[in-house]
Amino acid sequence: MITHLYDKTFESFIDEKTIDAAVKNLATQIFNDYHEKEPTFLSILNGSFMFTSDLLKNYNGLCSVSFIKLASYVGEKSTGNVKSLIGLDENLEDKTVIILEDIIDTGNTLSEIITQLKNKKASEIKVCSLFFKPDAYKKSIPIDYIGIKIPNKFIVGYGLDYNGIGRNLSHIYKLKT
Ligand code: IMP
Ligand code: MG
Q1: Whole-structure pTM over 0.90, yes or no?
Q2: Which of 43, 57, 92, 158 is most open to solvent, judged by the fewest CB atoms within 10 Å of its CB?
Q3: How far is the CA of 48 from the centre of ligand 2 (A)?
Q4: 143: nearest Cα among 153, 152, 133
């Protein structure tokens, strides 16, 4: 199947069944490791909204969920772009926090989030990403739960966008080259 988003052509890459199985597998793994701790899932918007919804529906333990967004803006000083987390009003002290990411590419976003969470005094911070591009990853932060490893290709669908569109596609497409 082919889909066109603005100027780009995308082709089918990962079907709904495969995504569903990966999400259920992640939910089970996290449940097995953390159901006694009542974890807080921290979903990184916008991309993770669909993944978060499906993961939580398959997580059969006590948990809470919070949503944050990474805003970038130009700082007043000449140091360039400063990123801050918006929406993080939850008290995370002594909590087990499990970050939910749609995809980890270079790891820059993840690294920024972890840095900013450090002063929230969580007892532990774990990372769960539905998709991961090992060939693009430049950080040493361990990714504790990985759904599907993919090659260094641009993908859309299931929450992921190309310039804001394509998030509603129920399976994953990759950029046709
Ligand atoms: P990183 O900071 O390079 O790890 O990239 C993380 C963010 O970039 C993700 O949360 C996505 O929002 C976006 N991103 C990275 N790769 C893709 C992709 O293949 N499709 C759509 N968005 C992507
Ligand atoms: Mg994201």
Answers
A1: yes
A2: 57
A3: 6
A4: 133
Residue holding tokens 């759904």? 147
The single residue listed with the structure tokens 């007892």 is: 123
Distance CA 56, CA 53 (A): 5
Our mutation pick for probing the ligand 1 site, out of 8, 160, 171, 177, counting the most ligand atoms within 8 A of Cβ, is 160
Question: Looking up tokens 């000449």, which residue turns up?
Answer: 78
CA dist 134 and 106 (Å) reads 9
Q: Which residues pair with 172 in a beta bridge?
A: 14
Q: Where are the alpha helices (DSSP H) in 35-162?
A: 49-57, 108-117
* DSSP 8-state symbol, 165: B
Tell me the H-state helices in 99-163: 108-117
Query: Nearest bound ligand to CA 135?
Result: 1
Q: Which residue stretches of the chain are H helix?
A: 16-34, 49-57, 108-117
Give CA separation, 23 vs 6, 62, 106, 111, in Å. 29, 18, 22, 23
